[in-house]
Every structure is written in C-alpha cells, then in structure tokens.
Amino acid sequence: MTSKPLSLYLHIPFCASKCPYCDFYSGRYPAETRAAYLAALTEEIRTFRRAAAFVPEGLSDRPLSSVYFGGGTPSVLGAAALTSVLTAVRARFSLLPDAEITMEANPSLPEPEAFFAALAKAGVNRVSLGLQSAVEQERRKLGRRAGKPQITRCVAAAKAAGIRDVSLDVMLGVPSQTRESLLETLDFALSQQPTHLSCYLLSLEPGTPFDKMRDRLDLPDEDAAADLYLLTCGMLKARGMRHYEVSNFCFGDRIGRHNMTYWTDGDYLGLGPGAHSYLAGRRFYQPPDLDGFLNGVPVCDEGPGGDAEERLMLRLRTDLGAPASAFPGREALLKELERNGLITTDGGTVRLTDRGFLVSNRVIGELL
User: Fold this and answer.
1) Which residues pair with 285 in a beta bridge?
2) I want to staple 124 with a disulfide (CB 3.0 to 4.6 A). Which of 89, 119, 199, 354 is the partner?
3) What's the CA gap between 334 and 327, in Å, rounded?
4) 3-state class of 176 per DSSP?
5) Please, what CATH class does the domain formed by 6-263 belong to?
6) Are the CB atoms for 95 and 122 separated by under 8 Å?
7) Where are the domains of the chain?
C-alpha cells in the first residue's frame, strides 16, 4: 500500500464571477477570506487535521502521481499563492518524476505570460482552460468573458512557458447552439493544437440560474443534443483524437491522468470544501462549506467503495472497457446491445460505443 501512487485534488472555491450553469462549490470572496483559506489549506496539507480519522498511516510516504488544482477558478489566487500551495505539497509528499500537475485557469487572465511562466517554474505541466464556446452569442449566454483572442493568448503563453499539456473545455447543447456553431467552436479549439479536449453536454443542475430559467433558454431538445454529441465524437476522432472517456478526448497518450485515477479505482485525497476522497476502500468528503473548513470542521463519511460492481461501472465509462467474462449469464444481453450499436465485444472486451456513451447509465445498469 505504501508504494502505491496517490493522486491529490486541491479545491480552490473562488471565482471572479459565477457562471449561470455551474453548481460546483465556489463564489466571490474578499482578499482577506482568500488569504485565510490559503493558510487553512496549507495547514491541512501539512497535518490532515480535518481528514485525520480517514487518513491511513503512512499516507504521506506514498508518491504522488498527480496533483490537480480545481475549483472554482484557481487562477484567481495568482501565481505566487498557487506556488506556495505547491511548495507545501512538495514538503509533505514526494512526487513521481513524471507526475502530472494540472492547474485550471480562467482565460481572462490579465497577464497570462507571467502567470504561466511562474507556474511552469513551480512544476505545473498541464493547464485546463474553460473555452466552452468560441461563438460570441453562446459565450455571452454562458456568462463567459474570454473570447478567441484571450484563449489564443493563454494557450500560446502556456506553451511558451514550457507547459507540455493544454486541455480546453467545450460545452455541448448550450443555448442557441447549432451543428454549424458547434463545428465553429471545435474547429477553433483544434486550431489551438491542444493535447486534450473535454466536451460536456450541458446539464441543468438544481438551484443554478440556468435551472431556474430553463423555460426561457433556447436549448436543443434531447435528440438534437445527442446529435451534437455524436457530431463531436465523429469529428474529433476523424482529426486523430482518442475518445478515451465519455466526455474526454486526447491526442496520442495525453490522457488526463488525474481523472483516470477516478475511473480506474486509484486512491485519491481531496482537500478543501466540497472535495471528495477515496482511500483504503473508503469514501469521504469535506462539506461544501468554506466557513466550516476555516473552522476545522472534519470530513464526512460516505462509506465503503471500490467493490467489483463499482470498478466495472467506472471502467465502462472509458475505452478500457471490461472483460466480457465479468458479466456471466448476460450473453444474450451483450449480443442485443452489440446488435443495437451500443457496445462492441472485440477481443472479449466490452466497450461502449459513442452511442452507448450517450445512454451509459442505462446500458451499464442493465449489464450490472
């Protein structure tokens, strides 16, 4: 166990503004709150005080295979603060020589060249930028400030700093989106020569502004949204990208290694309000409450995890698939699903097709 690599997620619950579709735990806070959080997060990295009841002995002896700064918008803290957090991580853990260190960033950065140069010097080797849409009308409805010029400048700055991997987020099925506007966004995204794209279907999450105004949004219906997803899959694969997870595509082997930990039953520790962890077969999370985190509120138990059924479910979300032998007595169902174009069973491995990914919850549920 002590030699098994570990992944670390650090939640930064701050945003310059809140997007109307977002239900991640984040918000706008004054500088003094951000400073207090930085101190509390650094303390938690050093002591695991809030998660102590669930952290197995010798955890910090395990090397980190990935570190992920998510949010919120980590870049609102600035390069110096983020570098200080990474310094605390290095003081507590050893990192594998090829560890993936990812930073989510807002493309509206005022000085991306200086920001990414400082991050690269600190060891960040992967950035994730929220493009969402390259179409002005769609972008405004999504509450996104950065357009094509800002994205282009950020990508160029990250690459010039020596950051090897750049991922862009794209949203599908957004208000007013058409096949033509989606192709414009995908063409622009590919023109930036990213190593990775995450392409998510818009979901109207309870309590978000989009959920409250759903009847006034010009949204594609379910069939149209499904067509947009299949269009995306077909286009990106035709351009040489690997569709390695329901919503994720990469060139070559440039998968998001941190997220792959989640899908392959790896251990991960999440620190910060709203962050989830899975260690030694047990799941727990920090309540999504910034004041509670600042005051030392402990994590909450989610119970055991990682049983055979869960591992199969997660692997079927990826192109790794699962052995057909894992579904005894389901041979007729496997044939039916394959006949309907929802799975393949080449080489004795069950993998969902693009159409299967669209209805993955149902397909996986029936298989299990």
Assistant:
1) 276, 300
2) 119
3) 9
4) coil
5) alpha beta
6) no
7) 6-263, 307-368
Where residue 329 falls (left for φ over 0; alpha for ψ -120 to 50; beta otherwise) is left
To the nearest 10°, report the CA torsion of 232, 233, 239, 242. Answer: 140
Q: Which of 168, 152, 170 is nearest to 160 (CA)?
A: 152
pLDDT digits (tens, 9 = 90+) for 327-351: 999 999 999 999 999 999 999 999 9
Cα(36)–Cα(211) distance, rounded to whole angstroms? 32
pLDDT digits (tens, 9 = 90+) for 28-76: 899 999 999 999 999 999 999 999 999 998 999 999 999 999 998 999 9
Q: Number of C-alpha atoms within 13 angstroms, CB side, residue 72?
A: 28
DSSP SS3 for 171: strand
Which pair of structure tokens corresponds to residue 239?
């351009």
* Rounded-to-integer distance, Cα 131 and Cα 139, Å: 9
Computed on alpha carbons and rounded to an integer, the radius of gyration of the chain in Å comes to: 21
Q: To 10 degrees, the CA torsion angle through 84, 53, 100, 161?
A: -10
Q: How many CB atoms lie within 10 A of CB 336?
A: 13
How many residues does the structure list for the chain? Answer: 368
Among 46, 13, 10, which residue's Cα sits nearest to residue 288?
13
- pTM, full prediction: 0.94
Candidates 3.10.450, 3.30.420, 1.10.10, 1.10.287; correct CATH number of 307-368? 1.10.10
CA angle (86, 89, 91) in 5-degree steps = 115
Q: Which residues contact 257 (CB under 8 A, 6 or more apart)?
A: 65, 66, 100
